Amino acid sequence: MYKKEKTAKGWAKEIIIAIVVFALSYYGVKHLFNNDMEAELKTAAIELNKQTPMQIDQHSRLDSVSSIGKTNFIYYYTFIKIEKAEVNLDTVYKYIRPNIIENVKKSPDLKVLRDNDVIIDYKYYDKNGENVMEISVTPELYNKD
Questions:
Q1: I need a surface site. Which of 8, 49, 60, 141 has the fewest CB within 10 A?
Q2: Is 63 helix (H, G, I), strand (E, B) or coil?
Q3: Closest by alpha carbon to 121, among 72, 87, 77?
Q4: Contacts of 77 (CB under 8 A, 6+ apart)
């Protein structure tokens, strides 16, 4: 009888150890391969949103930020005194878009996003809340030269 009891305790102990090792391995591997970028982006959005709305200049305001999974980080801006009809999209894409891309390439604050190939989206709305434009800066754009 003593031998059977010891064997049952041994099995229980081995099962518990196996469960603990599996759980630790699962979360370790998940963290290693997922790099937990999704959680980092969510946390960054939460922290930035504590500071919004934030006046950027006399024409624009950062209203909020959000993330989608581990691939997209999105900034939402409003042109404070401008209506959609007043925005010349040709000028925006010719002058403003290159400046945004250059900022993404060089900003130390965005390095973690660049290092993880995150797409950075900028969405602009007019003073009435109408969508004016969207600029998407992909890894292909910010990793050039």
A1: 8
A2: strand
A3: 72
A4: 56, 60, 61, 62, 63, 122, 123, 124, 125
The token pair that represents 17 in the structure block: 């150890």
Say what the pLDDT of residue 96 is: 87
Nearest to 121 by CA among 59, 50, 45, 52: 45
Topology classification of domain 37-142? GMP Synthetase; Chain A, domain 3 (3.30.300)
**CA 4 – CA 12 distance, rounded (Å):** 12
CA distance 22 to 15: 10
CA 30, distance to chain mean position in Å, is: 18
Domain ranges, ordered by start, for the chain: 1-34, 37-142
Is the backbone of residue 69 left (phi > 0), alpha (psi -120 to 50) or beta? Answer: left
Residue 28: the pLDDT is 44
Sequence length of the chain is 145
pTM: 0.73
Q: If the chain, 145 residues long, is cut into consecutive pieces of 10 residues, what is the mean pLDDT of each piece?
A: 49 54 46 70 94 92 96 95 92 89 92 94 96 95 86
